Amino acid sequence: MRAGVLFSGGKDSTLAALLLDPFYEVTLVHAGFGVSDAASHAEAAAEALGFPFEAIELDRVVAERAVETILEDGFPRNGIQSVHEHALERVAAEGYDAVADGTRRDDRVPTISRAWAQSLEDRHDIDYLSPLAGFGRRAVDDMVDATLEVEEAPSEELQKGDYEADLRALIREQAGPEAVRETFPDHVQTRVTGRRE
Predict the structure, then answer these.
(1) pLDDT of residue 130
(2) Of residues 81, 150, 146, 151, the one with CA closest to residue 116
(3) Can you tell me whether residue 54 is helix, strand or coil?
(4) Is the Cβ–Cβ distance between 146 and 14 less than 8 Å?
(5) pLDDT of 147
(6) Which residue ranges make up each domain of the chain?
(7) How far apart are CA 38 and CA 32, in angstroms?
(8) What's the confidence (pLDDT) of residue 145?
């Protein structure tokens, strides 16, 4: 069975892939808009981990709507959620038996409801997998510490292959760097650089 795991190069999507690896032929899938270096960061992480990698381009109109939503809301939650759902739809259409992500139990965004997951499965005849759904932040951090080499830095300093990189670039282009600072809260990003020996 083949699983396409939405992959940013961060610890959550990496850990999801590792948990699925004994049961599926895992491909790490970067889904983005091609407006930043996000895909190259995700590909480098996939190579360091030894997983096959695929990049798919998302529909630009989804990015434009997400940016509009983020600027109107003043925060990224709803925009990121819409991009994540679109990404799952696109990966589900790529011929995998299953599509997965690195969403955790305590995540506020993105989250996938049971009804939305079932709809995705029914419409695409695939399985939706969320291997970290039962794990909280501390448990995930403990598993990552035991298995992965990770870089950490503030989100403005560390580029990885997530939607945020593309959305920040589009907002910066459209509304300037101050709009990025106003809409995206400061937080720490992680980028996986390899497996622990």
Answers:
(1) 97
(2) 81
(3) strand
(4) no
(5) 95
(6) 2-195
(7) 8
(8) 94
Residue 158, pLDDT score: 66
10-68: pLDDT as tens digits = 999 999 999 999 999 999 999 999 888 888 889 999 999 999 999 999 999 999 999 99
Is domain 2-195 classified as CATH 3.40.50.620? yes
Sheet with 127-129: strands ordered across? 53-57, 25-32, 2-6, 98-100, 127-129
Question: Taking the CA atoms of the chain, what radius of gyration do you get in angstroms?
Answer: 16
Residue entry with tokens 């270096």: 37
Give the type of residue at 79.
Answer: G
> Kind and range of the H or E element at 175?
helix 163-175
Residues of the chain below pLDDT 50: none
Which one, of 119, 100, 125, 130, lies nearest residue 25 by Cα? 100
Amino acid at 186: D
Phi and psi, residue 50, nearest 5°? 85, 25
